[in-house]
Amino acid sequence: MKYLLFISLILFCSCHSDSSRKGQGEKTDSIRLQKELYALHRYVDSIIKSDAILQQRFHCSGAGLTKDKVSIDFLDIPEDSFEAFKSAFKKDVFDSPLLEFNIMSDITFGPEIIPIKEDSLGQSVNIVLSPIPRDIPQGEAINPDSLSMRAEYDYYPLSTTEVKVIITNHSRYEYDCGEGYSLTYYNERQKKWEALPTNPIRNDVLWIFPPDCPTHEQTIRLYTSEVPNRPGKYRVYKSFNRNTKVAYAEFEMVDTKGVEQIRKRIDDYWMDRMDDEKDTTAQNIQSTGIYDNDTIGVSLMNNSLYFQEMFRRKVVSYSAINHGRIQSATPFTAPAFLDTLQISMKTDSAVYPVGTKSVSVDLNNNNSEVLFFGEDYMVARKEGNQWLLLNGDNAWTDIGIRVGQGEKYQFTANLYPLFNDNRPGNYRVYKEIGFYDSKEKWFMVAEFRIE
Fold first, then answer.
1. How far is Cα 298 from Cα 48, in angstroms, rounded to an integer?
2. Nearest Cα to 180, choosing from 159, 158, 165, 162?
3. Beta strand 132-133 pairing with 63-65
4. In order of start, what are the domains of the chain with their CATH numbers?
5. In whole angstroms, what separates CA 171 from the centre of its chain?
C-alpha cells in the first residue's frame, strides 16, 4: 500500500506593525515566542533525525512546528498506547511545555511505506519511502520582475546530487508557497519536459515572502540512483498563492564536453580582455585548468569572495569552479635590508600618488661577487607594526639573472590598484637575491610612500 507522510510544520512570518504600545508589546512577545519555538524545533528535530533507533521506537521521523507549539507526531500507533508513548518521549528524549503530541493518522497516497516488524512499544515499523515524480504545477506564470526563482549556479557537473534554489520577492506584494516542487528535464528528442523523482516527504509548511522579508532558499535533492543525471536543461517548478501562480528556476547539467566548453569560454573572455585595463575580472585571472574531469581551476590574483562573485556574474556561473583557498592578508616576517654588503635597492621616487599602477626599482651591486636571482618580487603595505603583502601575480618566468660588480638591475613592481586597497601609507618592495654559486639567500627591500 502507498501512503504520503506529512509532518505538520507551519512557519509564520509577520512583518506588520501596530502603533499602540499594547500592539508593540504583543508583537514583541510573539517574536520572542517564535524565536523560542524555532530554537526548540531545531533542537528536538535534530535529536530525532540523528537517531534511527529513536525514530523506530517512537514511530516518528522528526518534529513539526505550529504557530505556538513544537509538535511530535506518532505515526500509526494504537490510541490506547498514546499516553505511554508521550510519557516515554518526555522521560527519555525531551520535555517542555511548548511540546504537543499527536497521532498521525491522516495519511494520503504517495510514497511506499512497508511494515517490516511491529510488536512491543520498543519495536516499530521500518519505513521505506520511494521518490516520486510530480507533474508541473498549473497556474499563472509569475513575472520574474515580481518574484524570481534561480538556481545557485547556472551550470552543474553530472556528479551533482543537490541544487540550491533561491526565491526572491521583488515586488510590494506578498507571496506564499509550500515546500512542494516539481523537478523536470527537457528531452531534446521528444521536445518535452519530463518529470523526475522528488522528495517523497513534503512537510506541510507555509513560507511567506513579504516585501521586507523577501528571500528564501530551498535545497533540491537529485535522486540519481532512480534517474541518472543527463546533460541538458533542468527546471524546478513551484506553486504560489494557493496554487494560483507558478514560477521556476532553470539550470543546466554538463558532461565532459560541456566542461571543456565552459573552460574555453573562460579562456576566450580572459584572452580577449586581458589588455583592457578597465576590465577588473579579466585582469584578475591568472591561470585556468581542468582536473578530476569536471572541475575547472581558475586562479585569481585577488581571491576574495567579492571577486569570486564578480567572476561568476561576468564570466560564467559553474558550481565546479575551484578558485582555491581564500587567504587573508599575509604578513611579511623575514629579515630584509635596504643596504647591505655594498648592495642597495631603492625606488625611483620616494613618494607616489594614490592610484599609481607600478613603481620602478633599482638594485645596485657594488660587491665584488656576482648577484644571482629570478624575476619574482613582493609588495607590502604597513598596517600597525606589520607589513602585509598585497595581492599580485604569482606566475613568474623561471630565468636566472646575473648582476656583476658596479652594475645595476632595474625592474618594475606592479601595485595592482584594481585588486588592492592602496590607500595612503608606507609601502615596501621585497626581492630575494643571493650570490652566484652560493646557496645563501636574503631579501632586499625598497621603501616608498603613497600620498
1. 42
2. 165
3. unpaired
4. 2-130 (no CATH), 140-254 (2.60.40.1930), 257-322 (no CATH), 336-450 (2.60.40.10)
5. 26
Residue 324 burial by Cβ neighbours in a 10 Å radius (0-12, 13-18, 19+): exposed
CA-angle at 180, arms to 179 and 185, nearest 5°: 130
Assign 204 to helix, strand or coil.
strand
Mean pLDDT calculated for residue range 392-401: 77
Could you read off the pLDDT of 103-149 as tens digits, one per residue? 875 443 333 443 444 444 445 444 556 888 999 999 999 999 999 99
pTM for the predicted model, two decimal places: 0.64
- The answer to whether 60 and 74 have CB atoms below 8 angstroms apart is yes
For the beta sheet containing 147-151, the strands, ordered from the edge strand earlier in sequence to the opposite edge, are 147-151, 162-169, 215-221
**Strand 175-177 with 215-221, pairing:** unpaired
Euclidean distance between CA atoms 181 and 239, whole angstroms: 7
**Scanning the structure block, which residue is given the C-alpha cell 543546466?**
252
**Strand, helix or coil for residue 52:** helix
Q: What is the pLDDT of residues 158-198, one digit of tens each?
A: 999 999 999 999 999 899 988 889 999 999 999 999 999 99
Pairing of strands 232-240, 441-450: unpaired
142 burial level (CB within 10 Å; 0-12, 13-18, 19+): buried
β-pair type (192-198, 182-187): antiparallel
CA 423 to chain centre: 30
pLDDT-derived band at 399, boundaries 50, 70, 90 = confident
Q: What is the pLDDT of residue 150?
A: 96
343 strand-pairing partners: 340, 365
In this structure, the number of other CB atoms found within 10 A of the CB of residue 198 comes to 22
Q: Strand pairing partners for 242?
A: none
